[in-house]
Automatic annotation (TrEMBL):
Organism: Paenibacillus albiflavus
Protein name per UniProt: PadR family transcriptional regulator
Family matches, as Gene3D superfamilies: Winged helix-like DNA-binding domain superfamily/Winged helix DNA-binding domain
InterPro entries: Tscrpt_reg_PadR_N, WH-like_DNA-bd_sf, WH_DNA-bd_sf
Record-linked Pfam families: PadR
Length: 179
């Protein structure tokens, strides 16, 4: 879904072709390599979006001694679908790193709706954590498992507190239009 959001958002700005978008993604930081996005995967997503009617080929650029470049444009249907995909990504993401492409394209959606989605996610996480933390006092601790239990409680509490903190911070920054 992230790759399709990336393609659609780039085509909202300008018509383009797959190789050019891959090159943009690799400069100055090789995000394509870091994310494992190969050229074949990118072309696959272009084909998928075209089959769905979200993008369309509008031109073929022919250059001597070079492969033809098929230039794509976003369709009206693609413009309608982009915000839906962005909202869906916010809803499905388990942590902020999975939201990065949606955050980078927040200009295409209603910030208040994004904040509502994230607040719902925050409430779910907080409620689940409150339920789990009540069980801490019920764990039987003896000499054999004391160190393991302390380690696990420390690990999970730090991890969830970190997640809650940054989700609250993200919501605040979205509402203040800092992101």
């Amino acid at each position: 879904m992230s790759v399709q959001i990336y393609i659609l958002s780039k085509l909202m700005e300008n018509n383009s072709y797959p190789y050019k978008l891959k090159k943009q993604l690799s400069e100055p930081i090789p995000l394509d390599e870091l994310s494992g996005l190969t050229e074949s995967k990118l072309y696959y997503h272009f084909e998928t979006l075209a089959k769905k009617g979200l993008i369309e080929a509008i031109e073929i650029i022919k250059e001597e001694h070079r492969p033809d470049k098929q230039v794509f444009a976003i369709t009206d249907k693609g413009r309608e679908e982009l915000p839906k995909l962005i909202y869906k990504l916010f809803e499905k993401a388990d942590d902020i790193t999975e939201m990065l492409i949606a955050l980078a394209n927040i200009k295409y959606v209603d910030r208040n709706k994004v904040a509502e989605i994230l607040e719902k996610k925050l409430n779910t996480i907080t409620n689940r954590w409150n339920t789990v933390s009540r069980f801490e006092g019920q764990i039987k601790i003896d000499e054999n498992n004391e160190k393991l239990v302390k380690f696990m409680v420390g690990y999970f509490s730090t991890k969830i507190e970190h997640k809650i903190y940054w989700l609250e911070e993200l919501i605040k920054r979205i509402k203040q239009e800092e992101i």
